[in-house]
Automatic annotation (TrEMBL), chain A:
Residues 109-138 form the Putative zinc-finger domain. It comes from Streptomyces filipinensis. The keyword Transcription applies. This is Putative zinc-finger domain-containing protein. Keywords: Transcription, Transcription regulation.
UniProtKB/TrEMBL annotation, chain B:
This is RNA polymerase sigma factor. PANTHER family: RNA POLYMERASE ECF-TYPE SIGMA FACTO, RNA POLYMERASE SIGMA FACTOR SIGZ. The keyword Transcription applies. Coiled coil: none annotated. Residues 29-95 form the RNA polymerase sigma-70 region domain. It comes from Streptomyces filipinensis. GO terms for biological process: DNA-templated transcription initiation.
Length: 473, 189
């Protein structure tokens, strides 16, 4: 309401003059019309002088309470300052209000607000009156007024997401790194950076936007509701599997305490995090997630080529470190897309060479997933040469992934130990790269995946279901 | 208010990591400073493509010459902003000089333009790095068009304090007019 008062004051003849003179330059031309517009609208709403009348001081002059349709209110506002200073109200029958008689240090303290056109008309008049006689204040006033002209609405320019790769690449060409980021960690580095850039300008509304996580378990579509912040908490918890393997701090230990620290596997850890953190996840989860992702990249750079032996436990299975980093890159991308969809932002697929590595990981995991499904009766029993020696060629499915990042993989069907072989190709599946990734993420069902198929239908079905079963929360 | 001249812990460490050629450190630098660098470059050069190119140059410089950062002189952020500012203004001057018509064209105009861009970029940096309470007060009073009393209410501070913040914020900002890189580090805070 004091806002209304302020603008009403500026509408008065005296105010107009005080303001016009008081806020020259950019400030006044910007504010002037808006101020008048606002007060006009307020006058028209049938509550003239509502702001003044409402503060119950009983000093409201008649003119302000019921101005005629064309008579602007004249009360200098905000009223508080008038009363604080114990001054009598200006004579309404008179002309301009006498400038407030303010002490020098108060006038000086008003210079910033004055330069920003953010004080009352009476104060503006008082400051300007003072500037005529005080050289020091006049100098500062000029300086601050110029500074106002430098204020500039921060445009949130979205950086081209591809710029990071281009910048880093050209740096590394000019000065080759002594400690490079391993090739298998590069997709994780890139994907976490892309997701972090997406989060950059999120406000509370975005952080708490609902997100539905979707995946396949036991050949059934599952989903779980959370928020954008909840997704980041999920990534933090599961990335923590690698942190633990590398001997870094377990993010779960801090939130959940010792009792939950041994929660196994991605879903178990995530649920433990969600369940035991004292509050639902907020934007504050971004820092720890980003810090951990940076330290994973950094630490894997130091383990370098010697990472072969290090296994990351996912609870019911292990992945070698370099595959785990690819897996986490893939998950980061998938969940970044979940987030982008939830807040209606566009999001691009990973760089083709990174996507190729992610698809390659899935293709390499398929034989053992098939074997596992076969043991559980979810896939057709193996045939023919599956008991052959390790490295023997076996019945195979040709997986053809189209688009940039794609390629061809021969998936041995009957044993993880067998070698994929074109000579024993029994089926051929062709999918677009992003469709394959959607399938592997559990976002489309294997029955509905748009796949070109030829050959052994059972083998094709088994492989598509196996791809979907790679997904998890 | 904390003095801004003390480099945050980790700045020296970051310098060491860059110096020993750790690619992961370069990535972290980009993640921390790319929007600052690109924003300043864009403010000086006024062009997206040129800002992209300059961003590449700036990071190449940081990566190739980490030893030119002196942690004793201020935070890493200031150094990054200073390098960006210097390279951006240099590029603007070069491209404007190249665009001068044969024999004609006013060098004074060119200098004015370069100076204007330079001051604008310095101002952006000052706003960007001033203490949050000051920035918030300026934001309310200028962009949200609140008067200082409303600003005080919004910030939950006294009117005296609101006036103080607005004045101090503008005083810091006004140092953008003072020549010299690295961009103003309003000494007052």
């Amino acid at each position: 309401m004091s806002g209304a008062g302020r603008f009403e004051a500026s509408d008065g003849p005296e105010g107009e003059e005080g303001r016009g003179g008081g806020v020259g330059g950019e400030g006044s031309s910007r504010r002037g019309p808006e101020g008048h517009g606002a007060s006009g609208a307020r006058r028209g709403d049938g509550h003239p002088g509502g702001g003044s009348a409402g503060d119950g001081t009983g000093h409201t002059p008649p003119g302000a309470e019921a101005p005629g349709p064309d008579v602007p209110p004249r009360i200098p506002t905000p009223r508080a300052s008038v009363e604080d200073n114990g001054l009598v109200l200006p004579d309404l029958a008179g002309l301009a209000p006498a400038p407030l008689d303010l002490p020098h240090d108060v006038l000086k303290s008003l210079l910033g607000a004055w330069a920003l056109a953010a004080c009352s008309a009476a104060e503006t008049a008082a400051v300007e009156d003072h500037l005529g006689s005080c050289g020091g204040c006049a100098d500062e006033a000029r300086r601050l007024r110029e500074a106002v002209g430098l204020l500039h609405q921060h445009e949130s320019l979205d950086l081209d997401p591809g710029l990071r790769a281009r910048v880093l690449e050209s740096c590394l060409e000019r000065r080759p790194p002594r400690i490079p980021v391993p090739e298998w960690a590069a997709p994780y580095d890139a994907e976490t950076a892309r997701l972090d850039a997406l989060l950059q300008d999120f406000g509370d509304a975005e952080w708490h936007a609902p997100v539905r996580l979707r995946w396949f378990a036991a050949d059934t579509a599952r989903n779980r509701r959370t928020t954008v912040a909840g997704v980041i908490a999920h990534l933090l918890s599961v990335d923590g599997l690698i942190a633990v393997a590398l001997g870094l701090e377990d993010p779960l230990a801090e939130v959940a305490g010792k009792a939950e620290q041994h929660a196994a596997g991605p879903a178990g850890r995530t649920e433990a995090y969600w369940r035991t953190s004292r509050f639902p996840p907020t934007r504050s989860v971004r820092g720890p997630w980003r810090e951990q992702s940076h330290s994973l990249v950094r630490t894997t750079s130091f383990t370098g080529g010697h990472a072969g032996g290090l296994a990351v436990s996912y609870g019911d299975f292990d992945l070698p470190l370099h595959d785990a980093m690819l897996d986490r890159a893939f998950e980061c991308w998938v969940h970044a897309e979940d987030i982008a969809e939830a807040v209606d932002y566009p999001y691009q697929p990973p760089a083709p060479r990174h996507m190729n590595r992610m698809i390659d990981l899935a293709a390499r995991m398929l034989p053992s997933v098939l074997a596992d499904r076969r043991r559980r009766g979810l896939a057709a029993p193996g045939r023919g040469r599956h008991l052959g020696l390790a490295g023997e060629p076996g019945r195979s499915l040709r997986l053809e992934i189209e688009g940039s990042g794609g390629g061809e993989w021969l998936i041995p069907l009957d044993s993880p130990a067998a070698r994929g072989s074109a000579d024993f190709e029994v089926a051929h599946v062709a999918l677009d790269g992003s469709e394959f990734c959607q399938l592997a993420a559990g976002h489309v069902s294997p029955a509905e995946a748009a796949a070109g198929q030829a050959g052994d239908r059972e083998a094709i079905r088994d492989v598509l279901f196996a791809v979907a079963s790679l997904s998890r929360m | 208010m904390a003095t801004k001249d003390v480099p945050p812990r980790g700045d020296r460490k970051m310098q060491q990591r860059l110096a020993r050629g750790e690619a992961a450190a370069l990535g972290e630098m980009y993640d921390r400073f790319a929007s600052l660098v690109h924003g300043l470059a864009h403010r000086v050069l006024g062009d997206e493509k040129a800002a992209d190119t300059l961003t590449r140059e700036v990071f190449a410089h940081l990566w190739e010459h980490p030893e030119t950062y002196d942690p004793g002189k201020g935070p890493l952020r200031t150094w990054v902003a200073g390098v960006t500012h210097r390279l951006a203004v240099q590029r603007l001057r070069d491209s404007e000089t190249a665009a001068l018509p044969e024999g004609g064209g006013s060098l004074a105009d060119l200098e004015r333009k370069v100076r204007r861009a330079s001051v604008a970029a310095r101002a952006d940096y000052i706003v960007h790095s001033m203490p949050a309470p000051l920035r918030r007060a300026l934001d309310l009073a200028y962009f949200q068009r609140r008067d200082y009393r409303q600003t005080a209410v919004d910030l939950g501070v006294t009117e005296d304090e609101a006036r103080r913040r607005l004045r101090l914020g503008l005083q810091l900002l006004s140092t953008a007019h003072d020549a010299g890189t690295p961009p103003g580090h309003g000494g007052a805070v």
